[in-house]
Amino acid sequence: MVCTHHHHHDPPSCEQKSIDKKNIADEPIVLPGSPFWNVFRRFGRDQTIATVIDIVGTGIVSLFITNILFLSLTGPIIEKIGFFIGNIKDAIAIYKTTTKEKRKSFSSYLFHGIKKGSVSLIEDLVVHDPIYILIMYFGLSTYTSTPIWLLAGAAFIFSIFVVAFIENIIDEYRFSRLKKSLINSGFKSESFLESRFLIQKNNNINEMIKKLKKHFNLKLVNRQIYEDDYLDHNFTHYSGRKPKVRIRSIKDTKLKNIGRLELSYSRHYELDKKDIHQWRFFPAKKEKFSYNLDKKYNLSELKKKELRWFTKKLAIQKGSQKINFKIILYYKNKNSNELIISIDEVKGLENLYILEVKVVNDIILLRKVMRFVMLEFPVIQTTREKSELQE
Question: Which CATH superfamily is domain 188-389 in?
Answer without folding.
Answer: Hypothetical Protein Pfu-838710-001 (2.40.320.10)
